[in-house]
C-alpha cells in the first residue's frame, strides 16, 4: 500500500492540533497536503524514529543532517511555514504535560510509532558534537573552533567567495555584490577604529586574514591576528605573503587569553565573542581592556538574541550547539554593553546591522547551492546539509528580528576623560 504520506500528514496534524502547512512525500511515493506548498520529503521510517525519540528541533536536525528528511522547493518558504510550528508557537502551544493527558495526542503518537518501524532510537549523525569536559577552557574552545572552522578552506571558498570574510557584510544597497559589501564592512571597521599608519591592531578571531590584510594594506596598520584554527592560520599566512604584507601582519595560532605583547592602539573582535560564553565574558572584556593603550578603541561585532525572560541570560540553540557552533551562547546587546562597561570600557556607539546579515546569508546559501555537488564532496554531505540549514534558517532569523547583530564601539578612556572621538560620533575618522 502507498498511504504513508496521508497517514503521516493526518497524524502530525492531530498531534500538533493545527493544519500542517507543507506537503509531505513519504518513502513509499505517496503524497499529501497542500499541492502548491513546499514539499517535506520523508525518505525513510528512520526519520520518524528520530523525531519520536528526540521531539523538537534536535530530532528534526538529526533527520535533516542524516539525509532522512529533505525539502523540495523554496527552502526559505518551507522554513517560514515550519517555524510557526517548531520555534514560534510560544504560549499557545500545548506543554508536554498537558499533551500527554489528551487521548487524541496519545492516539497520534501510537500511530506514528506504528508507521516508524522498529522502536529503536537511531544513533545521532557523525557530524553531531559529543561534548565532554567544562565549557570554555582553552582545550574545549580549541575543539569547538576546530569543529566549525577546520571544515576545509576549499569548502569555505565556495560559500564565502574571494573575500573569505565569515561575518556580516555591510551593504550599500541590495544590488551590490558580496565582495563590495564585505569590503565596505572591513573599511567600516577600520574607520570606526580610526586606524592610522603604524598603529598596532589586534584582530581577535582573525579568520582567514581579510581584516588584517585590509587594515595593513589600506591603512598602514601593523596587525597581529589570532585564531585557534590551524587551517585558518595557514591560509591567512599565505594570503598575507601573497599581498606582500609579511612585514606588517603576523598571524598566530593563539588564544586571546594568552596574548601578552600589548599595549595595542586598537582591537577588533568580529564574530568571535559569540564563542566566549557567559561565564567568561567579563574576563574576555577585561583581557581586551588590559591590552589597549589609554585612548585605544575596541570594535566588538557580535550576534545578539532578542530579550525574553531574564535579559541577562545567555541562550543556547540545540541545533546550533550540536552541529554548528559548539558551546556558542547568545545574549541581548544590553548584556554585552553592560559587561564591556563593567570591564572599564566607555561604550560610545552601538550600531545594529541586522538586515545586512540576512542579505549576507542569502548570498552564502546561493553560493553553496550553486556548487552543491563539489561542496558536499569537500565537506561531506552531512556537513554541507548542516551549513545549508543553519544559514537559511539564520537568514530568516535576522530578517524576522528573532536575532540581531551589532557593532559596539568602546574606548579605554584615559583619566583625562578625552575619548578621542569626534563630536559627531558617526563621522568615523
TrEMBL record:
Occurrences of domain Polyketide synthase-like methyltransferase (ranges): 155-396
EC number: 2.1.1.-
Main EC class the enzyme belongs to: transferase
Pfam family, one: CMAS
GO molecular function, one term: methyltransferase activity
Record key words, sorted: Lipid metabolism, Methyltransferase, S-adenosyl-L-methionine, Transferase
Keyword presence, S-adenosyl-L-methionine: yes
Keyword field contains Transferase: yes
GO biological process entries: methylation
Family note: Belongs to the CFA/CMAS family.
UniProt cross-references to PANTHER family, sorted A to Z: CYCLOPROPANE-FATTY-ACYL-PHOSPHOLIPID SYNTHASE
Protein's name in the database: Class I SAM-dependent methyltransferase
The species this protein was found in: Streptomyces vulcanius
